[in-house]
Amino acid sequence: MKKYYILILSVVLAMSGCSPRVADVFDDTAVVRLEQNREVVKERLINAENGWVMQYFAQSDQTSSDTIKHRGYTFLFKFRNDGTVTVGAPVDGVYMTETSLWDIISDNSTVLTFNSFNKVFHYYSNPDPALGLWGADGEGVGGDYEFMVLEYNEKENYQLLKGKKRSCYIRLYPLAEGQDWEEYFQKLDSMDKFLFEENLPLGMYVNAKHLSLYNGPKHEFRVFEFGADTLGGGQYYGFIVTENGIRLHDDKISEQTINRASFNLSEDKSRLVSVLDESIYIEMEGSTAFESSIAHGTVWKADSLSLGSSITSAISTLEDFLHTGVGSAKGNKNAKILSVGFSWTGSVTLDVYYTSTGKNELKDQYYFDYKMQGGNIELTYNGTNGQHNLINYNGEDFVKAFNGTYNFKILEPFHPSKGLQMSKIEDANFTMTLEQ
Fold first, then answer.
1. 288-434, what's its fold?
2. Model confidence pLDDT, tens digit, residues 406-417
3. Angle made by CA atoms 281, 285, 287, in degrees to the nearest 5
4. Average pLDDT of the chain?
5. What pLDDT is stored for residue 336 in this prediction?
6. Domain range annotation of the chain
7. HEC secondary structure over 358-423
8. How many whole angstroms separate alpha carbon 400 and alpha carbon 352?
9. CA-atom Rg of the chain in angstroms
10. Would you state the pLDDT for residue 130?
11. In whole angstroms, what is the distance from residue 203 CA to residue 210 CA?
């Protein structure tokens, strides 16, 4: 029996000696790899000469309204090797900085933590409901102060983070060397004002889909398919203003993939273009700006000298009637159409301003039905209501000349109040330059 056991042991030893050795998949243990990654991340954060820009989103899971879930904030950080970090940002509209502690720790993954209270940064993760911003009691703004460190994007040069508690994706970009911190926030304010000061809807084109974007000044786009009823509903998507444009918080918008893209202002400042796909862009559309602005009481006017040749001819004919006609302008060789304009009173109203005998200025109103078609507006004179003094001077033919379909061009992109060019599609000579 003893010989039998010795024989078995010999066979086993022989088999193990012939078996190939299984190579290690990793050169180091998981603990070692995690420690190496921690050191790489820490060195990267410290080595940024002028610090980092954090594009930060806070999200409260307890928030009752979708309209306030994805607001974005900007912070600047300077990480130091001694374990201190200086944070800068506007708080309640006042720029301030504060220095506190930070670290890169290993907690099942590499984690960036801000491990002492910083009145600038922890303002957004503090659960104190007295902050008065938004969020349920005990939630505060709903932000994070610990972040899992994900991959570094070499192409776009940012460090991707993910909130440890609320899972918001956050980016860190190196701040340009020599950029003054407080002036950086002034640049953001200037971009914000340039894009959204007129508070009119924008249009987004993505994957052959046309979307209307409202609520720009609130940094939460309320999104509809173009042409849809916008009186209620819509989907909300938060974004953050950057020095180059904006970046949306979500991976998709209205089921269209955008991969949380940044949209940079084009060189001619006419549109915001996705850095990932130039076919995806955002712009302010003339027809939508016109329709929205008159709905809010804006009156657009065009000096008669800025009108195209066909309407100028009609004005000349009408002025002849004013000079020779009846009523207040009879025999007044100085009677002249001063300007035409469009305002809103249930339908599109054409306002015509003209002089009468003496130096009196009169205004007639003519009502047009309208409908939007593919981004253009179609006007049809309905011949009712209004003050129609010019009808006495054969003015109805003049008014009917405005019937037709128009497109619009914003003369200064994102600022229609500085001028719209309204062109009649079926009449190449019929163009008006409108100003508020």
1. Lipocalin (2.40.128)
2. 999 999 999 999
3. 155
4. 83
5. 78
6. 30-174, 181-283, 288-434
7. CCCEEEEEEEEEEEEECCEEEEEECCCCCCCHHHHHCHHHHHHCCCEEEEEEECCCCCHHHCEEEE
8. 13
9. 33
10. 46
11. 7
